[in-house]
Amino acid sequence: xxxxxxxxxxxxxxxxxxxxxxxxxxxxxxxxxxxxxxxxxxxxxxxxxxxxxxxxxxxxxxxxxxxxxxxxxxxxxxxxxxxxxxxxxxxxxxxxxxxxxxxxxxxxxxxxxxxxxxxxxxxxxxxxxxxxxxxxxxxxxxxxxxxxxxxxxxxxxxxxxxxxxxxxxxxxxxxxxxxxxxxxxxxxxxxxxxxxxxxxxxxxxxxxxxxxxxxxxxxxxxxxxxxxxxxxxxxxxxxxxxxxxxxxxxxxxxxxxxxxxxxxxxxxxxxxxxxxxxxxxxxxxxxxxxxxxxxxxxxxxxxxxxxxxxxxxxxxxxxxxxxxxxxxxxxxxxxxxxxxxxxxxxxxxxxxxxxxxxxxxxxxxxxxxxxxxxxxxxxxxxxxxxxxxxxxxxxxxxxxxxxxxxxxxxxxxxxxxxxxxxxxxxxxxxxxx
Length: 433
Known about the structure:
The protein has helices at about 1-5, 10-20, 25-35, 40-50, 60-70, 75-85, 95-110, 115-120, 125-135, 140-155, 160-175, 175-190, 195-210, 210-220, 230-240, 245-250, 265-275, 280-290, 325-340, 355-365, 365-375, 395-405; strands at about 300-305, 310-315, 385-390, 410-415, 420-425, 425. The protein is α+β, with helices and mostly antiparallel strands.
C-alpha cells in the first residue's frame, strides 16, 4: 500500500509477488493500487487470479474491483461482480458504500440502473451524488437537477462534490441561469464556501456558451486565486470559439516557465493555441521546453469490451493481433461515409503537414480503431461501447454520428467529459460538449 501510494507500482508488485502468504488485505491493496494508477485491466486480471487462489472477497475488494470495471467500461464483467455479491456474503442494500460503487460502475459503463439506487435502505450523500453524477454524464441533466431537489427534500445535506456534480449537469446542458442560481442558493442555504471546482464549473458554463468576456470578467472577480486548470478551461474555449487574440493574451496566466514540473496540460494547450494560429516556431519552443523537463503528452487510448475481454487501442495501433482486419474495416467504412459527405476536419490536427497526411492522422485516432474492431466483432443489434481517456475531437464525433447512421449501429462513447450516445446520425449531447 505504501509503495502504491507513492506511485512505485514496480516495487509494490515485486513485494506482493514475493509474499509467501497473501490475505485479502494484501490482494486488495495491490488491486487498489493498480486502479488508482489507471491500470484497470491489470487490476481486473489480478482480481481473477485472487478468485482462482480461493481468497475470500470483502467489501473493500468489491469496491476496488467495481472501480476497475467502471474505469475500463467492462459492463459484462461488472454485472458478474454484482451477481456474485450475495455468494460472497456481501449485503448490498444495507451497505451504501457498495451500492455507491455499483451505481458508479453501471453509470460509467454506459447504463443508468435506477433499481440499485432505489433499493438502498439508508441513502447517504455519496450514493445520491453517484446517481446524480451518472445522470449528468449521460446528458440527462434535467433528471440530475430533479434528483438533487429530491435529495434536499429527503433531508440529506449536499457536500462539495454534490454541488460540483449538479453544476456539471447545468454545464452539460448549457443552463446558465440555473447554474448561477444553484451556486448562490447553496452558499445561502448551507453556508458552503465555494471551492475552485465550483467556480470552474461556472467559468466553463459561460465559456462553452461563447460568452468569453463574461467568463473572463467572472474569473477576474473571483475571491480566490484561479488555478491553471481554470485558465486552461477558458483558453480552450477561446480556441474553440475562434477568439485567438484572447487565448494568446490569457496564456500569460499559465506562467509556463514557473509551472510544476509534472504538469504537462498547460504546455500542451499553449502549444496547441500557437499551432492553431500557425505560429510553429512558438509551438516548437514550448515543445522544446517540455522535452527539457521530461514531460510527455498522455497518449490517447480507447478501450472496448468484446467477448468478456477488454481491448485497448492507441493512435495508429498496429500491435493488436487483428490489426490488419481492423485497418481494412476502417478503410471500408471511410469509403462509405465519404459518399455521405464526410470531410475530415483537418484543422483538428495541429501539426505542420499537408491536409492528406492530416486526414490519415485523424483516421488512426484510437476511438476509430476501437470502433472498427467493434464493427468486426460485435454483432448487429448489440451496442458498441467505447471508453476514451481523453476528450473526443470534433472529427471523431462527426465520424461516430455518420457510422451510426450508415451502418445502423448504436454506439456509446465515454470520453473524459461525458457520454455520447450515437444513434441514427445524431448524438445525445446535441453537439454541445
